[in-house]
Amino acid sequence: MKKVVTFGEIMLRLATPDYLRFNQSNHLISTFGGGEANVAVSLANYGISVDFITRLPENDIADWCIAELRKYNVGTRHIIKGGNRVGIYYLETGAVARPSKVVYDRAHSSIAEIQSGMINWQEIFKDAQWFHWTGITPAISQGAADVCLEAVKAANEMGITVSCDLNYRKNLWKYGKKASEIMPALVDCCDIILGNEEDAEKVFGIKPEGFDVLQTNGDVDVQEFESVCRQLMNKFSRTKKVIITLRGSINANHNTWGGCLYDGNKFYQSKRYDITHIVDRVGGGDSFMGGLIYGLLTYTDNNQSALDFAVASSALKHTIYGDFNLVTTAEVEQLMKGDGSGRVVR
User: Global pTM?
Assistant: First the structure.
């Protein structure tokens, strides 16, 4: 099997322990994370050959970051060096009615200052079959958006499957362009589109009628999203599959979780998981995407199994601290079969 390539920013994550607020904590727990890197780690855990592409500075923090990726068998040989800093994000984990809070410190990071022509995509893609990016990357800077466009166009020319997670982040689009100005040209090059109940509306103005994400009370009607899938597929003629993640937020510790997939002919639905004691939901969508790519590559022509694998793998991610989903295919398949008892494995 040929490799998967992902491209984006990886950041140093500094999080308060337990459920402490920023002004309560006297130390922060350091890990690394970022949308496309999280997907890469998931795929590597499932035995898929994967390369993560980014730009990092020449310093000890970047070396530490690369070592972490290599620990999880993610390919790093095409990471380019330059710039002055690794981006940082701070996380305060919410509880019950208090939501989690993220503070970004990623301005002028190495990848934010990337420019067209710095990455040889033809070389990177010569043994690849899949390329994945998220809407976070073009939100970072004009340079990052330009390089992302270079990548998807090169992938199209080389016959490589392209997937994107729309991943709208309003706090990132700060360089003078709106998502609606940049994203259409990028998404137009995609074969697989993933989004949630907000992304399609915030980026393209596409939404299900009568739906309010803040009023779900954990109950999300999957049928409401078939029209979203159809609208996205009609807008982007290259697209072969549209997938929507369905999160019902009862409170910060208790969510329902599922998904749906539309392939232009049939609308597929997953089972709904009731996640009652969330350990860490950051990276939940990325774990879904990692599971989906694995599922589509592994369960050939079986969209239902691919969707079920994605949802189960992401449900398990909510039990794991950090951005990365450190689960095995056997654990995901066990949950897919209905074994969610959590009994000790001896």
Answer: 0.94
